[in-house]
């Protein structure tokens, strides 16, 4: 992806850069537990850009200087889905605009699942334990 300047200079970046921006923004939205297939670990130590599955739950379409973002997320049970949707639209649009100067024309959110915070912590803990076993 690239942005052309009036003086014919170009700023280019990979699509995964936008996906990492989106993922990072979503970690700040109360009630979003994960992207579909990608848990947000509370004690995450690996840099977002170094992860191999950063794109799970994020689909981007870009045309010139405009971006459409499609998300599949897991939400905490009992939270206000419409409030979460509004916050996702706001923060994703702001962060992409701020970092890339691209206009986000659409943010579509599909709630793929809901779970309690306790169940999420249990799943996250099990996932981290399995990853530690594989590394040994």
Automatic annotation (TrEMBL):
Protein name as annotated: Stress response regulator gls24 homolog
Family: Belongs to the asp23 family.
Domain of life: Bacteria
Pfam families xref list: Asp23
Organism: Enterococcus larvae
């Amino acid at each position: 992806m690239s942005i052309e300047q009036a003086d014919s200079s170009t700023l280019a970046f990979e699509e995964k850069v936008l996906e990492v921006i989106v993922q990072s923004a979503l970690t700040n939205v109360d009630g979003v537990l994960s992207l579909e297939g990608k848990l947000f670990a509370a004690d995450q130590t690996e840099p977002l850009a170094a992860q191999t599955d950063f794109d799970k739950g994020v689909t981007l379409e870009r045309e010139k200087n405009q971006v459409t973002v499609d998300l599949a997320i897991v939400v905490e049970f009992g939270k206000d889905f419409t409030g979460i949707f509004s916050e996702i639209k706001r923060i994703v649009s702001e962060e992409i605009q701020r970092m890339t100067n691209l206009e986000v024309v659409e943010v579509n959110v599909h709630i793929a699942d809901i779970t309690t915070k306790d169940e999420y912590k249990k799943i996250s803990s099990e996932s981290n334990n399995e990853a530690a076993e594989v590394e040994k």
